[in-house]
User: Fold these one by one.
Assistant:
Number 1:
Amino acid sequence: MKWTMLLLAGIFEITWAYTMKLSDGFTKLIPSVITVIGYLLSAVFLALALKKLSLGTAYAMWTGMGIVGTTVLGVVMFKENISIPQVLCIGMIIVGIVGLKIMGE
């Protein structure tokens, strides 16, 4: 259950960051509302995961999921450029997330 809570926290982390971009500086109502809701849900699910996971592990995985997810969305949805060194660094973050899960609590 702790990993499910952390996964949901990561999904909502990506959601609020993505919809913040869509909100155009909070000038568009629907994306702005979704941003706030996503932010709150991300924090709630992270707090639930922290009941059973160590802070360092949970926070590293949560932010890592956010980094990877928002980078992918930026490239796919907003046609943002990504260089080979950036891809390699994102790959290292993924390896770190998987390593924390495999060696995690």
Number 2:
Amino acid sequence: MVGKAIIADLCVQHKVIAIDRSRAALKDIAGATTIEADLSREDAIKIAVRNADLVISAVPGFMGYATLRAVIEAGKNVVDISFFGQDPFSLQDLAEKNKVVAGVDCGVAPGMSNLILGFENIQGEVESFECLVGGLPKNRQWPLQYKAPFSPIDVIEEYTRPARLMEGGRIVTKPALSDSAMIEFDGIGTLEAFNTDGLRTLLKTMGSVPNMREQTLRYPGHIDLIKALQALGFFDKSPTKIGSKMMKPIDFTSGVLLRNWRLEPGEEEFTVMRITIVRKDESVVTYSLYDEYDHDSGITSMARVTGYAATAMANLILRDEIQHRGICPPEYIGTSHECFKSIMDYLWERGVKYIREEIPG
């Protein structure tokens, strides 16, 4: 759902190979060479990427870590946007051994949120960081009031994976969907925010920031329905007997939700993000993003804001402008003013505009 936007953007100035197990998905790819391969197999990954200068991994989260490891083992620089649960720094030694730059979590959030905090943290000590982000359909349809603009399986993972936050300098784990609050957004109205596990590498790399949290945004009412399904056991991963068969409830629920969450061709959706950074001198910096479906290109907003962040990072690596080697989350890139400006300019040229405002302390 995001990979096609990445391919279209890179094809303008690079030779691109698109790899997928779905022949039907590859038929829709224009401007790139295509390879049909099962990326759940490590040997298939290594064969498919052998002639690449750089690899971008846009696989679902449950495949992400194994795919990233296989690409690093193949000795290829890589940009990754998959929402896997494992610690990417566990691959640091392997990446250093193979002299690889591995840009991880290079999407919108995590991704651009990390980049922005990395940049702002070197401008002055940060006391707190909050990221509110969501991708939503313009047309609210009962009962779910939601369509998935990125991997639906990873949306379910957001709703079930415990959320890690930083509170008072300590990592605190809370249930996903917790601490919900209603928040107003100009031109949109009221959205509901709730905890999700989006801080990820920031918990390790930005330990000097005592308070950090990431929350996902949905239309009011959506989360009550998800919480009800969760309370009734529809997301349980332990098999239960249904008739004469054993089935994981989450497999059934995923099938039903994925069918109902599918965006129709040309369906309008938008991405909204608000980052609030409070410094220790009590000054406040905000970054705001609002982006919509692009009718001219047919590219969804979520594909634009996620995919173009990934391609901006890819171009920095291809130009050898990133000094860091090994596992390289975006907050590391944000510490370079030149790299930060390069990514922001790249996105602005494509209509993805982060508006920065500062209130002095």
